[in-house]
């Protein structure tokens, strides 16, 4: 019985950590879906958003909700700048060129964030609950639970946004073909600003969750790397895929560490996700929920 | 879909002395021509003659370095493609530019993009007016689907369709915008005889029933001579002929360009 409770606890904790991975992965999926670009800068955006939030809060000494609203404004301005100075110049270019441009944005954001807000580790406290509570012998971390619920809510909102609104359809159109999208009267500029704003906001939410857990520090942008196996598992174009992928990776690595780790000398948690992703690349390259890759020759 | 009264003779679009070059390459040099309301206007010419560049100038993808384009009596300076779309210019592309991941229905729905009014928030909540609006557009799109006889592939992702059907979906998307001027870039390229005949029929029907003005590029001479009211011929970026099909057919310069007299 105790063994079973322990298993459930590990599983739950894994799933909830997974939800945190999903939050990061969501930002990637959004931009990939909407512009066909793998946005290397997503991790940097998450960090930048969290840094700005803490920075504004410290500088102005305001309540976190006000700092949050200001940060939303900063992310919108960032999206506008990315379109104005980077993407707007690259209309109709190959996806690989846009991808390279996002690498540039990454370096810029990392440096810019440090210049403005400094490079110390900052504590982010917006009053999210801390510590664990006990449900029938299973301990659940409160922060992770909040993160899980937030991820769930975000997915529902985004799914509606993409499938039910005119902008959602325009986003998918832009992802498929720039020229054709423009010819039906879609303004690329507007769409790109919208999508980078949304990705920035998702980054902000993810940054708040991770920042509350680990403190706001530069290693946060590395967590974005964990989103890669999540995306390979879930599929780069699927919002539910990002969630399911995150959950599988989160639960998988915790369970593997506890139950298989001893057999191979431990430290499975660090590479389990990547190995799982590689297996997926071999057998199901589009991921669990990705669009099947159809190529007519 | 209401029938419009057509008053042929009125000029819808006038191109005056436009020139377009990419670096040292001259794609179009000093070409003038006009498109009249309600007509089917063909642009023909050998490969690389500047036909597609001409369409790209008209719908704002390219901005000619010289000359002016007057549309609906309004001389325009540099126009963005989405502005052209907003003023009633729709088009299809030489190498089918569809949204491959989306279904036929969704592809054609994107054509309604500019006609949709409801805001982001209400459409996210699928609220009254937004819902009603979506349904109205859906009805219009279903009419187009019926018209083009593609009911069976309504829910199929277009990436899976054969080429001929993709071209038809692309036409549907352009029609969904209820355009005044429809630009068709080689609507029949790569089609078999039967598909060509269908496409001809659709083009003529669109022209007849909705009074849409059509400007098309086509290589199949038989088709061009049959369906167009007037034909313009480009060669090496310059205009070498313009007029009724029979006039163009007997124009010596045109014959040379096509039979290889000149090059």
| Total individual domains of chain A | 1
Kindly estimate the percentage of residues of chain A that lie in beta strands according to DSSP. under 5%
What would the average pLDDT of chain A be, to the nearest integer?
A: 85
Task: Report the count of strand segments of chain A.
Answer: 2
The CATH H-level homologous superfamily of one domain in chain B: P-loop containing nucleotide triphosphate hydrolases
Described by the principal axes of the CA atoms, the overall outline of chain A is globular
What is the chain-wise order of helices and strands of chain A? Answer: HHHHEEHHHHHHH
Give the biggest sheet of chain B.
6 strands, mixed
- Beta-strand proportion of chain B: 15-25%
Please report the number of helical segments of chain A.
Answer: 11
List the main descriptive attributes of the protein structure presented here.
heterodimer, A: 297 residues, mainly alpha, two-stranded antiparallel sheet, 2 strands, 74% helix, 3% strand, B: 263 residues, alpha/beta, Rossmann fold, six-stranded mixed β-sheet, four-stranded antiparallel β-sheet, 24% strand, globular, disordered N terminus
């Amino acid at each position: 019985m105790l063994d079973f409770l322990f298993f459930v606890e590990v599983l739950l904790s894994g799933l909830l950590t997974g939800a945190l991975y999903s939050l990061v992965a969501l930002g990637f999926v959004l931009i990939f879906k909407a512009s066909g670009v793998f946005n290397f800068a997503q991790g940097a955006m998450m960090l930048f958003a969290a840094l700005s939030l803490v920075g504004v809060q410290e500088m102005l000494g305001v309540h976190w909700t006000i700092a949050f609203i200001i940060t939303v404004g900063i992310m919108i301005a960032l999206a506008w700048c990315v379109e104005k100075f980077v993407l707007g110049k690259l209309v109709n270019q190959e996806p690989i060129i846009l991808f390279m441009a996002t690498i540039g944005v990454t370096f810029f954001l990392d440096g810019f964030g440090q210049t403005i807000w400094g490079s110390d580790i900052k504590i982010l406290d917006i009053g999210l609950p801390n510590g664990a509570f006990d449900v029938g012998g299973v301990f659940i971390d409160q922060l992770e639970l909040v993160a899980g619920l937030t991820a769930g809510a975000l997915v529902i909102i985004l799914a509606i946004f993409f499938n039910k609104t005119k902008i959602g359809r325009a986003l998918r159109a832009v992802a498929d073909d720039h020229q054709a999208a423009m010819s039906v009267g879609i303004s690329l500029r507007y769409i790109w600003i919208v999508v980078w704003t949304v990705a920035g906001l998702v980054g902000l939410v993810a940054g708040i969750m991770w920042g509350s857990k680990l403190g706001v520090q530069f290693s946060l942008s590395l967590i974005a790397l964990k989103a890669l196996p999540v995306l390979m598992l879930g599929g780069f174009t699927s919002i539910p895929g990002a969630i399911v992928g995150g959950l599988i990776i989160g639960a998988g690595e915790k369970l593997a560490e506890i139950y298989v780790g001893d057999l191979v000398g431990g430290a499975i948690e660090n590479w389990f996700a990547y190995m799982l992703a590689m297996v997926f690349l071999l057998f199901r390259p589009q991921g669990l929920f990705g669009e099947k890759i159809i190529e007519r020759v | 879909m209401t029938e419009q009264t057509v008053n042929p003779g009125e000029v819808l679009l006038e191109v005056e002395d436009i020139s377009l070059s990419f670096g040292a390459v001259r794609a179009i040099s000093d070409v003038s021509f006009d498109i009249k309301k309600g007509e089917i206007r063909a642009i023909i010419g050998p490969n690389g003659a500047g036909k597609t560049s001409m369409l790209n100038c008209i719908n704002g993808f390219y901005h000619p370095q010289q000359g002016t384009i007057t549309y609906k009596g309004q001389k325009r300076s540099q126009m963005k493609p989405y502005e052209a779309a907003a003023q009633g210019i729709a088009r299809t592309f030489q190498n089918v530019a569809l949204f491959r991941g989306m279904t036929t229905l969704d592809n054609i729905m994107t054509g309604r993009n500019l006609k949709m009014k409801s805001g982001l928030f209400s459409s996210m909540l699928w609220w009254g007016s937004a819902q009603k609006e979506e349904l109205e557009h859906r009805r219009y799109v279903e009419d187009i689907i019926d018209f083009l006889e593609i009911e069976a592939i309504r829910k199929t992702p277009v990436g899976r369709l054969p080429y001929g059907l993709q071209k038809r979906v692309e036409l549907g998307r352009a029609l969904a915008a209820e355009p005044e001027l429809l630009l068709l870039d080689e609507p029949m390229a790569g089609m078999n005889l039967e598909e060509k005949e269908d496409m001809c029929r659709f083009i003529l029907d669109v022209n007849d029933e909705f009074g849409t003005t059509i400007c098309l590029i086509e290589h199949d001479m038989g088709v061009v001579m049959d369906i167009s009211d007037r034909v313009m011929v480009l060669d090496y970026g310059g205009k070498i002929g313009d007029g009724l099909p029979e006039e163009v057919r007997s124009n010596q310069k045109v014959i040379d360009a096509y039979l290889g007299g000149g090059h």
